[in-house]
Amino acid sequence: MGTEDIKIKINKLIEPVINSCGIDLDHLEFGRMGRRGLLRVFIEKEGGVTLDDCELISREIAAVLDVEDPVPYPYVLEVSSPGLDRLLKGPKDFKKYSGKTARIITTEPIEKQTFFIGQIADAGDDEVSLLLPKDKKIIIPYENISKARLEVEI
Fold it and tell me: What CATH number is given to the structural domain containing 127?
C-alpha cells in the first residue's frame, strides 16, 4: 500500500472522530522519513484552535489509529492548527477567505509576474481575482497556482 492509499484510509478513519469533538479537519499530510512515517493532522475551529484542542484530537485519533492500524510501519503523529498563514488549496479555501490578503505564486507569468500579494476579491470555481495595490485587479486560474497562502495581517 502506497503513502497516498494510507493517507486516504487515515482520512476516512479520523475525520469523523475529529468532527465529533466539534473541530474540523483542515487537511493532513503523510509521508516517509527514512524507515518511519510522519502523519501531520491540521485542525481548525471557529474562534481558533488551542493547545488543549490539539492534545484532545491527538489522543482521540491515536486511539483509533492504534486499533485500526492503517500504517504498516512506525510513524510520528503531529496535530496542529494550519496557522495564520495557512495554505490555500483550491476554490473552497479561496471562497472561505474572500476579503483576506493572500500571497500567490504562479507556474506561468501573468502580466510578466509570477508573484502576487493582494486581497481576494472574488473566488469562482476556475479562477480567483486579486485586488492588487492601486486598485488593479488580476485574475489567476487555479490551474496556474503553484503555491498560495494567507498573509498575516498586522
Answer: 2.30.30.180
Question: What is the Cα–Cα distance from 115 to 58, expressed in whole angstroms?
Answer: 36
CATH number (domain holding residue 63): 3.30.300.70
Are both 25 and 47 inside the same structural domain?
yes
Distance between CA atoms of residues 120 and 87, nearest Å: 14
* Cβ neighbours for 18, distance < 8 A, ≥ 6 positions apart: 24, 25, 41, 43, 57, 60, 61
Q: How many domains does the chain have?
A: 2
Q: State the pTM of this model.
A: 0.78
- pLDDT tens digit string along 1-41? 688 889 999 999 999 999 999 999 999 999 888 889 899 99
